[in-house]
Amino acid sequence: MKIWIKVLLGLVIGAFLGGYLPEDGAAEFFQYAAELVINIGYYVLFPLVFFSLAVGIFELRKENMTLRVLGRGVLYGLAATFLLVLIGTASVVLLAPDRIPIIIEQESPFSVPGVGEILKSIFPRNIFTVFTGAGSFLLPIYVFALFLGMNFTFDRSISRPVVQLFDAFSRILYHGNKFIVEILGLGMIALTANMVFTVNRIPQFELFGQLLLLLSINGVFILFGVFPLLLYFLGGRENPYKWLYGIITPLAAAAVSGDAYFTLMSLIHHGRENLGVSRRVGSALFPLYAMFGKAGSAMVTGIAFIVILKSYSSLGLTVSAVLWVMLFSFLVSFLTGPFPGSAVFIGLALLCSWYGRGIEEGYLILRPVLPLLISYGVVLDTATAAFAGLLAARHEDQHHEIFLKDYV
């Protein structure tokens, strides 16, 4: 049975359980079960990224392709982020959803690591501490694997045994990750039920209806219009919707988990087995996008922040304010790597703080629907990663065609 069918069955069963089971007891159980499923999704992710990236960079460097692949991947990620921020900002300005009444809530304390703190985490005094983190930041592991892969080529007769060991670990962990993805349908039951219970607890849901409708319209437009159109003209004029069919499982995982790292484990698998992205490209770009390619979260953050601005002021938006939102929504998406499950929340909090003028805690009016906003963002982040990774692989001749009947 295809993985996406198992996932769809899990979605249906989870939605039924979340919709019909009494909340007392069941909600707490499924919340715990959802957290456990996400932990299982993380189980082999960090070592898989570490060993696969080191080997992938070694293979790219042998062919003098490292800078080309990474440079092209970064360029496509930046372009996609700018494009989605532009689309999102234009849509919220033109369609103008209604203001949301100011809701007074207590602020939850949180801290965002600064650039200096991030650099210290990447380059600790003891390099082995990158393996003992809390699992919230992939960048130190990524940089260390990149460093090793670049140095595997200095003397191949010496490094060959180490490369073979890393290659073996990469393949073993990929197989373990494949097993986890294969049973993802069971985990989707808990994740979907937990999401349904979360949505059912949203007070005055109708207040946020227009905002959620606007995000849905943008999502459909981007997934079924913008990305397929770009793939058709930039990726070889082939059927662009094969790409969308190939990432049904990662998109579903993103929607009900709202966690970029949890979604990454299925994207790595489907990127190779369905999209045909080579290991050397996928190992380098997919984790990078999970940390910094947050085009969808940037778009959702920009849209939500403009709604906050309109809710706090009856005055119309000025051109300068719109440009400010576009610029800082773009920039803030690159600061949320340590928060794989709350990028939109952190982005909104930072924008409100930077903007000031009495709305430092303005993001609290959207707190009831933040889980949905985060999920919207991660879905589009995942689609962007698959789109940019596939495009980079095709342009660097690191892609092999896979027939639809062979999709997992």
TrEMBL record:
GO molecular function per UniProt: symporter activity
UniProt topology in membrane: Multi-pass membrane protein
Keywords: Cell membrane, Membrane, Transmembrane, Transmembrane helix, Transport
Short name of one Pfam family: SDF
Compartment annotation: Cell membrane
tRNA processing as UniProt keyword: no
InterPro entries for the chain: Na-dicarboxylate_symporter, Na:dicarbo_symporter_sf
Keyword Membrane attributed: yes
Parts of the chain that traverse the membrane: 42-61, 73-96, 127-150, 179-199, 211-234, 243-268, 288-308, 315-335, 341-357, 369-393
Protein name per UniProt: Dicarboxylate/amino acid:cation symporter
Organism of this sequence: Marispirochaeta aestuarii
